[in-house]
Amino acid sequence: MSTKKAPNATATKLHGLDHLRAFAILFVLLFHYGKIFKHPQWADDIGKFGWTGVDLFFVLSGFLIASQLFQQINDGQHISLKVFYTKRFFRIIPAYLVVLTLYFVFPYLRERESLPPLWKFLTFTQNLNLNTHSQFTFSHVWSLCIEEQFYLLFPLLLLFFIKIKQVHRGYILLITLSIVGLLIRIYWWNKLDTIFEDSKNFIYYWYRRIYFPTYNRLDGLLVGVAIAGIFSFKPLLKNWIIKNSNYIFVASLVILTAAYFVCEDESSFEGSVWGFPLVSIGYGCMVMAAISPTCFLYKWKSKFMSWIAMLSYALYLTHKIMIHVAQVEFVKHGVDEKSNLMLVLSMAACFIGAIALNKIVEKPFLKWRDKIIVK
Hints:
The chain is mostly helical and 375 residues long. The chain has 15 helices and no strands.
């Protein structure tokens, strides 16, 4: 990559990314509803591929974080770790700690019986060696753990590359990490298949050794960083992408369709090894289209989608609590757990919980963050 200055991809409001963020969280909600809770059959059928919503979040995070830091390089600015970590802390930690406290203090709110140890949540290592058989409660923050690890290490790696004057060779690290993750997944799948062939325990160890560990799930983040690199340092390629953005969006749908069939059984060899990068590349193409001014996603402004996107983190944190409580309470009033009405009521509860967390915790801490950074 050259360090020639290019326009900042995040300088203006990117409505296209709001659409993708809203889609991602709704897809994840539908997946969890059909996977974990009592549900109508159609929810499971439509939401089966919803686990990939997390991978879309990874691509978005990789792109947005890397874009901010790359723009500082383009502008000749010093990357301040203090400012970067302060922003991340106030955006992520307060709401997370509030929900974590609710889980540990009020057992009634838990969607399952047991929680992993508190220290694993506080150190953001819950995704490592996670036992989904006996510690499934609040398990979905495995993806937040990976993002937090990324937020911690990526700026440090970038500063190292700046110091040795090798920023233009950063793509080598991206490719290396992708290959390493692929090889580790091949190793663990073959080992688990040998040990647990035709055993119901295979899936539990598949989640623990392949699905949750950070080194196996970097594809989305790496794709996001690569997109940020292209839009920050490769103006000719960036312009070609913008010119062909609607075709790239169509390509994303084709790739994701292929990924759907490859991952029809996500724990299969094909799904485990090739599915993750294929999903990430598909969503990466979608993100490239969404940030291009010529794309319909970029031009489409929707207050409703922006509102859902704004609530996405709060929805992510609280949705299992709210669905669990809604089902327990509405069953008492005669609502069938597997009915469409229960699904609607549960989704409404999710948004009520997210709005409360956003207004009571997220917004006040973000205002405080902005005051601290200005000082």
